[in-house]
Amino acid sequence: MNSAAAADDIPCHDWQGVPITAATCGGCAHAELRRAGGCEPGRSCMQDAYARRIDRFFRTHRALANQHLAHPYFEVRAIAARHADLFRLPPLMADPDETVRLQVALRVPQRLLRQMRADPHREVRIRVAHRIDVADLASMIDDPDYQVRCIAAQRLPEALLPRLLADADLQVRLEVARRIGLPAMWRLLEDPAPEVRRIAAQRLPEPALGLLAHDPDWTVRWEVAGRAAEPVLTLLLHDAEPEVSRHAAERLAARPAAVVMVKTVERAEATHG
Question: If DSSP states are collapsed to H, E and C, what string results for 248-263?
């Protein structure tokens, strides 16, 4: 490979496996560019199978990207799509390779991006879910891929989050639990996963924490012990899990003496009428 010693120690071959050398450059459409020092086998070459060398070529010669959007090698089409004029991209929305469609999804305007919400490949739909206007994201709530639904749970308006409360995937429900507000937050208490109920214990209004004081998972009760007021803390002092009872005892012991005194007086007054 003479001066064309391969950068990154990867041999120079085109997408069909044919070695690329200075001698083969004469048959390239950009032979004049090569003679002028504008590209170099092994470093910057759009005929190479190695994506990094293709990218170097198009980053240096962006004006040539439009010419290669129909190239038979998907990497060339995908990298050219990063630099081509926007009005040349719509035909690539139906490209047979998802790598090309991924690049298109990063650049097309919203009116075209909406057409890619049902792309057959999950990675493309994930890109779409990240970019699409929130007003057009609701239709992706029922996407078959959990990651797409996770993104929807992160970006959708709070009012639409209840639709994802019963999602089959835990990661989606966790995203919902972190954002959902009252009154829908009450439904978190019914979730079968302790991870979701732990978030409920972290976010519910303090007066409602008693509802989780008998949760079957001790980590949920531990979260309750970290936020609850005295009546619930007193109950948790007798919890079967030592970590929970210890946490409740530490919270009670750390309460300001003045607060404890007020509570003592209130109890005495209640007892003696």
Answer: HHHHHHCCCHHHHHHH
